[in-house]
Design goal:
Homing Intron 3 (I-Ppo) Encoded Endonuclease, Chain A; three-stranded antiparallel β-sheet
Length: 175
């Protein structure tokens, strides 16, 4: 069984995770509770998982590969998250309890950092054919909403920021 993002996991696997891993909510680190086969790791050591697009991935014997932030949620709150676990500060390997929250897929996407582009402002891009800054945002239902074209980047950014704060509330990320 593999979970890199998926919401479902078997009850026996949850028990196995709890048997093998502990969680330090202040640092966000996962710790081994038992020694590994053939001395591969010792109980009490920090799990140093691989990375997948910035997210830490950990292996649990008999279960497979799991997203560390989802395991952290399980060990902190006692339940496997049925929705996304969002990193509030946008740093994908910061798994401290204070930085994790449950989110719908739409909420999680709203909190994503933007990729560098012409404006470096989420929802704003340069429209060369018109010589203006194009502003747009996705609403609560994922529908693209046009906010207008503006002569200055600052103006387009202000319009996007206001709309994002109004529509996305706690999940608004502007850059």
């Amino acid at each position: 069984m593999t979970d890199t993002n998926g919401p479902r996991i078997e009850i026996w696997a949850i028990d196995r995770i709890k048997e093998h891993l502990a969680y330090d909510s202040a640092t966000g680190e996962l710790l081994r509770k038992v020694d590994g086969a053939r001395g591969r790791w010792k109980a009490g050591t920090v799990v140093r998982g691989a990375r997948n697009k910035g997210y830490q991935i950990v292996g649990v014997p008999g279960v497979g590969l799991l997203s560390a932030h989802r395991v952290a949620w399980l060990l902190q709150y006692g339940v496997w998250p049925e929705v996304d676990v969002d990193h509030i500060n946008g740093i994908r390997d910061d798994n401290r309890a204070e930085n994790l929250r449950l989110a719908t897929r739409q909420e999680n996407l709203r909190n994503m950092r933007i990729k560098p582009g012409t404006s470096n402002v989420k929802g704003v891009h340069w429209e060369a054919t018109r010589g203006k800054w194009h502003a747009q945002i996705r609403d609560e239902n994922g529908k693209q909403t046009f906010l207008g074209r503006y002569a200055s980047l600052a103006e387009a950014e202000a319009v996007c920021t206001e709309a994002r704060n109004r529509m996305h509330k706690d999940f608004a990320r502007h850059r």
